[in-house]
Amino acid sequence: MKTGWIYRDEYDWYDMGRSPGLIPPGRFVEPGEHLDQPSTRRRAASLVRASGLAEHLTPLPVTAAGDTELLRVHTRDYLDFLISQDALPKGGHADRGTWRTPFGPGGLEIARLSAGGVTAAARAVVEGAVSNAYALVRPPGHHALPDRGMALCVFANVAVAIKAVRHEYGVGRVAVIDWDVHHGNGTQEIFWDDPDVLTVSIHQDRLLQLSTGDVEEMGGPDALGACLNVPLPPGSGSQAYREALGRIVLPRVRDFAPELIVVASGYDASFFDPNGHMLLGVEDYRWMTQQVVDLAGDICQGRLVVAHEGGYSPWYVPYCMLAVVETLAGERTEVADPVAFIVEGNPFQALSADQARALDRVEAALNAAPPRRTL
Ligand SMILES: [Zn+2]
């Protein structure tokens, strides 16, 4: 089993500006470090090397996504807008008028490399050069819409990759499992009317400004059931995620019978994330990944691509990500979760009554409108 590995130094050079945390610039706001610190991914890549795991991975070359690849998802007008922003001496914004998607000078080429990174991973998996692959990319992609960036996302990296392998290799059905703490609204919207791409999102219910991601959103009229949302209450932990994935998501993915599975792996559902309010630890990420690896082995020759999305604890994300990559590679390094004693001993890791009700709501919606079989 070979596991492909995507990472480029330039991903850390993507400049989110000097807004501290998520606070927009303004009077009484001291400039500081943006929530999406470059050091998070650099530290994660460093741990992959320091742990020895890198020796078991197959580095894959990355080429920047070209216009042809991007325009399968995004509009020409949006691409032209980004070209104009890229030319500004201090950069601009990718979401047309708000401060939520900072776009630093030179950002366009790095965003192209990010979309190209996930695409390279998908191509290598579909070609059989590797069994599965991890793409440690930046900026993230799952909020990006066809005509604008959103919430730090410039290009819809996962969607661009899926469209590429479907177009180039005739891949049929694809399932996306998004466990970033935010709703994967961009991926959902892009494939809303496509019955051949199942988009699944497990997320914190209505986190930040996102109003999308409720259980009633199940796909367009010709793709009903090709969209599945599992909104969980803040404070959900180990057991809520295990029930959501094991009881609801994986059976639906198995039933969908995809030829390729793509995981949008954010780490902002981790215990120490400064943005999300969930409780996941290293062993939860390992468990979730193992379930998907096993399912992929059962139903699609192990074809699995994992794309890095959000995750804002510079010191905890690397351990969570390492567990995911270890699981893809079927390896176990000597690195253990250094704060497992805090995470795993937390009494709120059990399933609470409100979390159980949230899961029941998803199941009720599925039973009321059974997914249209696409077989
Ligand atoms: Zn997120």
TrEMBL record:
InterPro entries referenced in this protein's UniProt entry, alphabetically: HDACs, His_deacetylse_dom, His_deacetylse_dom_sf, Ureohydrolase_dom_sf
Name of one Pfam family that matches: Hist_deacetyl
A single MF term (Gene Ontology): histone deacetylase activity
Superkingdom: Bacteria
Any one GO cellular component localisation term in the record: cytoplasm
Histone deacetylase domain residues: 40-328
GO biological process, one term: epigenetic regulation of gene expression
Family statement drawn from the similarity comment of this UniProt entry: Belongs to the histone deacetylase family.
Name of the protein: Acetoin utilization deacetylase AcuC
